[in-house]
Amino acid sequence: MPLFRLLRASAPLWLPPALAVAGLLALWEVTARAGLIPPFLLPAPSAVAAAALAVPAPQWLGHVWATLRIVLLGFAAAVAISLPLAVAISRFALFRRSIYPILLVIQSTPIVAIAPILVVTLGAGDLPRVVITAMIAFFPIVVGTSTGLLQCPDELIELSRSLGATTGREYRQIRLPYALPHLFSALRVAITLAVIGAVVAEFVAADEGVGYFIRTSTAFFRIPLAFAGLALLSVLTLALFGLVGLVQRLFFPHSLAASDARRSS
Amino acid sequence: MACAPAHPPGAARPLAPPAVALEHVSQVFRGTGGQSVTALRDISLEVAAHSFTVIVGPSGCGKSTVLRMVAGLLPIRAGTGRIFGHPIERPRDDTAMVFQRPALLPWLTVTDNLLFPLRHRGRPVTGADRDRAARMLETIGLQDFARSFPAELSGGMQQRVGIGRALLGAPSLLLMDEPFSALDALTRDEMSFELLRLRERHRSAVLFITHSIPEAVLLADRICVMSARPGTIRETIEVDLPAPRGPQTLRLPRFHDLCEHLRALLTERA
């Protein structure tokens, strides 16, 4: 297999996944054109692209911005709630034991089931959508961060105690930096969940946003448009996922090296 | 930092108080089933200022517990403990610790790791501190690694940073908890010689925990031999090997006699 060997040896890192995606799209296009699947069930990628281009760009941007705003607000709220919670969970065993069942109940309740209730309770506007987004995104951050805080090696904690440091300094200078790799893994999971949360919220109650756009498109049986919205959501998710990684690389470069070192040792 | 504080008023002490003085210290742990386990029984030991004392004993004899009590990390509930005449209440600024593992912060450079105790105590790091850190790096032979991260160093180099960090504050008392036990045998010997060399410059008192008999004999002015269950001091040996100690010490017949004596003490119980 000389092609595979060539790919392994000299191809840039992005090439194999790009080829895989292109191959899948080509297969899809061929299947759709051959008439194996009716176009109203699965439109060809070319039809989706055509439908997407038919929608004016400002209209797209309006929907994307509406969704992005909810995602970012919900994600920020999730981080703001999760970090103090994770610190408290790692610090107080009693609190950890009491709060975990509650967190699990919140996490295991289907977000789709709570969403309509929250909309009724919190009324129209951004608030219910932000709350729904935060609810689905906070759990991995709490679990990941508290795990990182608790996994700090005993000898580092003992060093801190032997230096007579306060708990605040122990957290700021030792535990939190140590937990950064865990925190960022959790943030990557959480940002993808936040997109899901925002779309679910838009399905329930919204008059703009990509989720709203997909729902109305399907309601009018404009399947290619719905697929276009779906593709846009994927791009949005990938971009946000990459952004979290970029923030880590720019501001906390050592948290990457640390996780690499830990993995290799 | 002065190591000998003024005598407590009224105390008739002709000499400076010892670096460490434990008297009749015991420790009982409550087991999970409610029964109590005597971890330490009636430990008394003294570390003279500027002297090197080694506690040697089998695993689980409580020697690390003794060190933690002296460090102020574990409260002394029965008996008394003093450092330079002061009751041990909490970790002291004139005492530094070296741990079994290097305990370096992976996200800080070697230099910043040396300076970490200052930062962690909330003191500003001055240019003079940075100069002292640079000199310490030369002393421990790591001047080329000032900007390296711990993961880029070998185990022995990491532990040298750990020792350098402890010595940078010029402690009057250095507590070392099996600092070389995680290193391979060759590095271990090398580190012992290095520690002896460092001690010529930094004359702090040392309390050193180990389960290695040759290491104890090579380093110590005085050895406290502990036995387990309950942890007690079985015998205290003054080591009369000539100074300066170094690789040549290992060839002295007296060195081997002392090692044999220790080995007999440590095994006859079993």
Automatic annotation (TrEMBL), chain A:
The chain crosses the membrane at residues 6-28, 40-61, 67-87, 99-124, 130-152, 179-205, 225-247. One of its GO terms (biological process) is transmembrane transport. Keywords: Cell membrane, Membrane, Transmembrane, Transmembrane helix, Transport. GO terms for cellular component: plasma membrane. Its main location: membrane. PROSITE patterns: ABC_TM1. It is a multi-pass membrane protein. The keyword Cell division does not apply. It is found in: Cell membrane. The keyword DNA-binding does not apply. Signal peptide: none annotated. Gene3D superfamilies: MetI-like. Residues 64-244 form the ABC transmembrane type-1 domain. Belongs to the binding-protein-dependent transport system permease family. This is ABC transporter permease. It comes from Paenirhodobacter hankyongi. The lineage of its organism: Bacteria, Pseudomonadati, Pseudomonadota, Alphaproteobacteria, Rhodobacterales.
Automatic annotation (TrEMBL), chain B:
InterPro entries: AAA+_ATPase, ABC_transporter-like_ATP-bd, ABC_transporter-like_CS, ABC_transporter_ATP-bind, P-loop_NTPase. Transmembrane segments: none annotated. It holds the Pfam family ABC_tran. One of its GO terms (molecular function) is ATP hydrolysis activity. Residues 20-253 form the ABC transporter domain. Keywords: ATP-binding, Nucleotide-binding, Transport. PROSITE patterns: ABC_TRANSPORTER_1 (PS00211), ABC_TRANSPORTER_2 (PS50893). This is ABC transporter ATP-binding protein. It comes from Paenirhodobacter hankyongi.
